[in-house]
Amino acid sequence: MTSIFAQDTIDAWRRERQLDPEPLRRLRASFLRKFEGWKRAVEHLPPEHRDDFRRRFTPHSLTLADRRDSNLDGASKLLFRTAGDLPLESVILRVASGRTSLCVSSQVGCAARCDFCATGRMDIVKNLSAEEILDQVVQAGQIIAAEGRRLRNIVFMGMGEPLHNEPELHRALALLVDPLSFNLHPSRIMVSTVGIPPGMLRLAQLHPQVRLALSLHSVRPDVRQTLMPISLRHGLDELHSAMREVTRIQQREIMVEYLLLAGVNDTAEDLRLLPEFLRDINVHVNLIPYNPIDDAPHLAASSPERSRQFAAGLKAAGLRVTTRYSLGSDVAAACGQLVRGHQRRRVNA
Ligand code: SF4
Hints:
The protein is an alpha/beta fold and 349 residues long. The chain is built from twelve helices and 14 strands. The protein folds into two domains: 2-58; 68-348, TIM Barrel (Alpha-Beta Barrel), CATH 3.20.20. Helix 5 (130-146) crosses helix 6 (166-177) and helix 7 packs parallel to helix 9 (236-250). Iron/sulfur cluster is lined by residues 110, 112-114, 117, 119-120, 159-161, 194, 335.
């Protein structure tokens, strides 16, 4: 069966039947913008064509295998499986202001091998196709719509490094902003990277309004190389130049993500060096409390007191800073934790 996102094939199907384009436009609007169910969406077609359409086109490329709703806050973690039975996860983040965001995965596993990340322990298993990335949006969007909420933001901060899967990332972004598909404003989409300068520049050029987040986590080369081995390949000087160029192209700030790790990157030295590194770049710094993972017992979150001091120090140095409220700690919402938990249970079963 062909995916609902194969627009050329669907248009060819329509032309063969000499169908007016309007019913298909309504079908797409129903399924991809209002997040109505497949059955209801297909009812926008003339009755005599519905069965044939259902036989030829499939709405989903993923199966929703598990769902965990937080008892503490508005996070829901969704565990999906690909057609080849590989696990991946998405997280719905509902915050008190009523805004609902979705964090999607771009890969199963990840080659970046960040020290603090459960997904990094899996190595790379598969690049997700654009269809698999977008089906996370469709299925989570249906859950959100059924609650009477609206999906507002999409962030590529789930499993995987999006810039290691550029062709499918760019295809997915094109469909997310396409007026005939999801019709999302690009500024409501954020792509988060560990810092791959050539990919950052291509993203800024192709999608200047899509927001970029950079996981920086340290500006001390040895610390960053230990936390993020990708830094051995793309050092801080190269990253600094790319950040300046991206902000010049996009004419907007980069979101700098900084995970606060006790004694690792929250020292007085870090507080001195970070503003120096960011001095001439348009950034907003997002400090993130660390969600511990079983695989990294050597890492611990900075204390609330140290986190407050760190934020205050950065502000005093003239940076715009927020501390991200960490959602879903009881449903293993940090990247890769639910999949790792499922893998362990399968191994131990
Ligand atoms: S933090 Fe992101 S880039 Fe790093 S290993 Fe995890 S999934 Fe990959």
